Amino acid sequence: MQLLLTNIRQLVTVRSSGKPFKAGKAMRDLGVIENASVLVEDGFIRWIGTAGDFSNTLNADADTLDCSTYVALPGFVDSHTHALFAGSRELEFAWRSEGKTYQEIAAQGGGILNSVQATRAATKKELKKLASRRLDSMMMHGTTTVEIKSGYGLSEDAEIKMVEAISELANEHFMTIRSTFLGAHAMPPEFRTQRSEYITLLCERMMPHIAKRKLAQFCDVFCEEGYFTLDESRRILEEARKHGLGLKLHSDEFTSLGGTQLAAELGAISVDHLEHVSDEAIRALAGTKTIAVVLPGVSFFLRNPYAPARKLIDAGIPVSIASDFNPGSCMSSSMPLMMTIACTQMSMTPEEAITASTLNGAAAIGLSDQYGSIEVGKRADIVLFDVPNYRYLLYHFGTNHAAKIIKHGTILEFS
Amino acid sequence: MQLLLTNIRQLVTVRSSGKPFKAGKAMRDLGVIENASVLVEDGFIRWIGTAGDFSNTLNADADTLDCSTYVALPGFVDSHTHALFAGSRELEFAWRSEGKTYQEIAAQGGGILNSVQATRAATKKELKKLASRRLDSMMMHGTTTVEIKSGYGLSEDAEIKMVEAISELANEHFMTIRSTFLGAHAMPPEFRTQRSEYITLLCERMMPHIAKRKLAQFCDVFCEEGYFTLDESRRILEEARKHGLGLKLHSDEFTSLGGTQLAAELGAISVDHLEHVSDEAIRALAGTKTIAVVLPGVSFFLRNPYAPARKLIDAGIPVSIASDFNPGSCMSSSMPLMMTIACTQMSMTPEEAITASTLNGAAAIGLSDQYGSIEVGKRADIVLFDVPNYRYLLYHFGTNHAAKIIKHGTILEFS
User: Fold this and answer.
1) N or C: which end of chain A has fewer CB within 10 A?
2) B137 vs A97, A99, A399: nearest CB
3) Residue B200 DSSP SS3
């Protein structure tokens, strides 16, 4: 099975020559090839070059797709989402526009616990059906790999239902999916006065079960005032490490509790949010391999400060952009729009935004050996955009420019 | 020719019962009917009610469309765009992300004059072809009426080429189009030291020609430091009034020169931008019939302050939202995204944002007797969105929810 993409107007390879991610100035190097060709074989990239260099001996009878009107990018890797949930929270959106505070919204039944209620009530089948449609839409906008977190269950049954659903979707959907156990997303109401007991349940019952059945690759904690303390976060993540799970952390979203330093110390694969990250935390992060995942859509949606992406990149920290697609704080999964927000509000350059949404996204979920760039030997996840150049994709915002989605070498059709 | 829309999940009529626009608290009244039906005849709305009320005597053999999964809104009226232009300015977008200032970008060949150069060089046919594709895309996102300005010509020939192109598109494209003469968009380089002579050319040659041939319905001026002074703006608008053109003004975008007070004094149909509008100007505007057109996408794109929409509405001023779609300061024409920005960044409620994008948009271009609401006797411009309720349309952002576009009673098909 060969597929030849020819005359690609601009091929944005994001090539890293074997490095797992890009940091600092390297984030601006997209490895762009004008008028390029790519040969795909059995779902992998076999050859890349300029159209003129292509030798017919490489392919006997490949299907050929003329790409002279397209710009090709690696499929986006959205490394932080909560795409599995029931219910929706447009009323909270309206309340916020009227100036209602977080506390007032919570008092009216809003917040994470709203989605917990709906998700607990839904069957696994219903959750999968809802998520599957969302994954279709994400793919249509150019995302080919995604991380999905649990965390709207907050009980043993409901959390396991969620990671089972995510794992089943990973087998059944075209999307490449990584599963993260986020039992520590919020304190369930039943345990409000017995915090330690919930954490024990989480560490001693849920986690061993999930790890044993390989229902998640990562464990994440919402380290934040009103959610989980720094000590509680440490306890959970240290336990997760024993079970062989990769570590992630929601850190510094509203306040700076020291979570970022903890993530650095424990060698977390990523530390996410960082809207209120301190200079001290940035220093702790610099030089580690932990990816800083920034979430432009959340700050936009909640009208909160943006993570200091410029400072992070200038400190040499590899930055990834993710959507944080979720019903409460960012009801969008459009990676191109996240990149536009990053450029207009966070002073990231288009090149940095693209690296952050592809290679560095893959690194944030441990998949950059296979995904996140268009290089020989990697999986053929390529998106063809109907734009004149890669900058235009971020510049002309609010519309979907994705023309063709190639996943593992197959051109997808959406009905 | 009859078309019956039945079982509409939510019909958002934005009914105004004959009033040309809504102001203050009335902007929150969307006239929503659940489980509604609408009968369309010969391009006009003939009957509206709940599905249960519909009597078969009304229609003998109407085509029937089941809308039980749709929310229906009036087609959006985008009352401020510069959708006719050649070239694109993604490089300026990239430069801004790198922190380059407006002055630096202008020195590198950016700014309005960049688009002037490209637009002057293009033929009328080329300009129309480019704009026509953009109009298709706008319609696919739910806009059915649009205003387009000239202003990238800045010479007699090129300005007339632009308004001719806009007028021809108005005849040839499905979109309802209003044309605005904006010869006073910037001082052309040839006249930098002879400002008064350009204004004379504009008033004594271009304007009479354009008015006589009815190539524009409105005249607009960019009243701003470095563009046109308050006195120059007055001279141009007073002349335009003599020619029977409606008056519009770009006012208070970067500085507060008194343009808003001028617009109020001259009875302009709209005053647009208002990012830096003063309290004094708001007082001058209150009680007039001038529509305040705010442009959320510009502030987002340029990372500038937002117009104080909340203050304007609370002062009883009718507010409209427009995209300002243009290659320099807002490369997006998605009205749903503009509404999301208005709700998240400007404290407008979803209801106000919808009124501002429909009825009040129509009022800003003098068309609210025919467009902007779903009421008996008005044109049947109706958009069916695949969402559970109208709030969801603004809440789930960054993707296109428009499922069917009905223009003058016809369901459009896009190839």
Assistant:
1) C
2) A399
3) helix
The answer to whether residues B34 and B137 belong to one domain is no
pLDDT-above-70 percentage for chain A: 98
Average pLDDT, chain A: 96
Q: What is the mean pLDDT of residues A18-33?
A: 97
pLDDT tens string A208-223? 999 999 999 999 999 9
Evaluate whether residue B334 is within a structural domain: yes
Amino acid at position A91, single letter: L
- Tell me whether residues A397 and B332 touch, CB distance under 8 A: yes
* Residue A333 at interface with chain B, using a CB cutoff of 8 Å: yes
pLDDT at A103 over 80: no
What pLDDT is attached to residue B58? 66
A225 and A115 in one domain? Answer: yes
Beta bridge partner(s), residue B5: B38, B65
Grade residue A108 by pLDDT with cuts at 50, 70 and 90. confident
Confidence of residue B57 (pLDDT cuts 50, 70, 90): low
Query: What domain range is A395 assigned to?
Result: 2-74+373-411
**A263 touches A238 (CB < 8 A):** no
| Segment A56-68, tens digit of pLDDT | 666 667 899 999 9
CATH number, domain at A126? 3.20.20.140
A76 in reach of chain B (CB within 8 A): no
Predicted-complex ipTM score: 0.97
- Interatomic CA distance for residues B72 and B368, integer angstroms: 18
Task: Count Cβ neighbours within 10 Å for each residue of B96-113 and write b for 16 or more, e otherwise.
Answer: bbeebeeeebbeeebbbb
Chain A residue numbers with beta carbons less than 8 Å from the beta carbon of B335 are none
Q: Is residue A209 part of a domain?
A: yes
Q: Are residue A278 and residue A187 in the same domain, yes or no?
A: yes
User: Who among B90, B96, B397 is closest to A392 (CB)?
Assistant: B90
Q: What pLDDT, on the 0 to 100 scale, is given for residue B59?
A: 64
Q: Do B303 and A345 touch (CB under 8 A)?
A: yes
Residues B324 and B385 reside in one and the same domain: no
In this complex, the residue of A137, A395, A397 whose CB is nearest that of residue B399 is A137
Alpha-carbon distances of A336 from A78, A81, B74, rounded to whole Å: 11, 15, 28
**Which DSSP letter does residue A213 get?**
T
According to the model, what pLDDT value does residue A48 have?
Answer: 95
Residue A110 lies in a domain: yes
Mean pLDDT, chain B, rounded, equals 96
For every residue of A177-206, DSSP letters joined together read EEEEEEEETS--GGGTT-HHHHHHHIIIII
The answer on A117 and A13 residing in a single domain is no
CB contact under 8 A, B90 and A400: no
Using an 8 Å Cβ cutoff, are B121 and B154 in contact? Answer: no
- Whether B182 and B219 map to the same domain: the answer is yes
Domain count, chain B: 2
pLDDT at B361: 98
Residue A368 covered by a domain: no
**Residues B47 and B96 placed together within one structural domain of the fold:** no
Same domain flag for B92 and B190? yes
